[in-house]
Amino acid sequence: MTVKSLATGVAAIAAIGAAAAGVTCIASVTTTLPRVQPVVFSAPLPLDPVVPGADVPTPDQLATVLNTLQDPSVSFANKGYLIEGGVPVPASLADHELQKAAAKGSLPLTFNFTSITPAGPGVAAATLTATGPHLAPTYENLTFVDQGGWKLSHDSAMTLIQSVRSSGH
């Protein structure tokens, strides 16, 4: 799987900017804690059926977010509303990398969502397949949040950045 290529088309721009901005490592730390059985009322259980009409975005809404992120004609200075917490790198660096990807013929990518499920109040998990001029079908699991409109979660944006950085972009 070429997560590097997917991230390049969608958010690799942010990875280069993150490296330039001094982000050197994004890692998770795992600790072993005793298991605690949570007691939460009205929280959906994994086997609960999805309620028809649950608050999940449409595939078109999510594709619009990703298509706007990859649009080289729109500056990242105007894309902050598409990522939870805003674009995590300087817009000029992100714009430069996106322009390079466009010049190489790596864009546009096409996104096909195979699953969109509720992942909590105002949160949706989405499985997508991305393809592009130089990208074989690549699968990715992303999270989107509804904050006055659907946007890519900060964690999903950082996952894409980390994928690109660890691939040696």
**What is the mean predicted local confidence, pLDDT?**
74
Distance between the termini: 15 Å
Radius of gyration: 17 Å
Tell me, briefly, the overall form.
globular
CATH fold name = Nuclear Transport Factor 2, Chain: A
Give the number of domains. 1
* Uncertain runs: 1-34
Strand-pairing-aware structural class = alpha+beta
Number of DSSP strands? 4
What's the CATH first level?
Answer: Alpha Beta
The number of distinct helices, counting runs of at least 4 residues, comes to 5
Helix content bin:
25-40%
Instruction: Please give the order of strands in the largest beta sheet.
Output: 1-2-3-4
Query: What is the CATH architecture assignment?
Result: Roll
User: SSE order, as H and E?
Assistant: HHHHEEEEH
Outline the biggest β-sheet: 4 strands, antiparallel
Percent of residues in β-strands: 15-25%
Which secondary structure elements does this structure contain, and how are they paired or packed?
Elements: H1 3-10, H2 12-20, H3 59-69, H4 91-103, E1 110-120, E2 123-132, E3 135-146, E4 150-152, H5 154-166
Antiparallel strand pairs: 1-2, 2-3, 3-4
Summarize the structure.
The chain has 169 residues and is an alpha+beta fold. 32% of the residues lie in helices and 21% in strands.
Describe what you observe in this structure.
It is a single chain. By secondary structure, the protein is an alpha+beta fold. It has a single domain, classed as Nuclear Transport Factor 2, Chain: A (Roll). Helix content is about 30%, strand content about 20%. It contains 5 helices and 4 strands. The protein has helices at about 5-10, 10-20, 60-70, 90-105, 155-165, and strands spanning about 110-120, 125-130, 135-145, 150. Strands 1-2-3-4 form a 4-stranded antiparallel sheet. Strand 2 and strand 3 form a beta hairpin. Helix 1 (about 5-10) crosses helix 5 (about 155-165) and helix 2 crosses helix 5 (about 155-165). The chain is globular, with a radius of gyration of 17 Å.
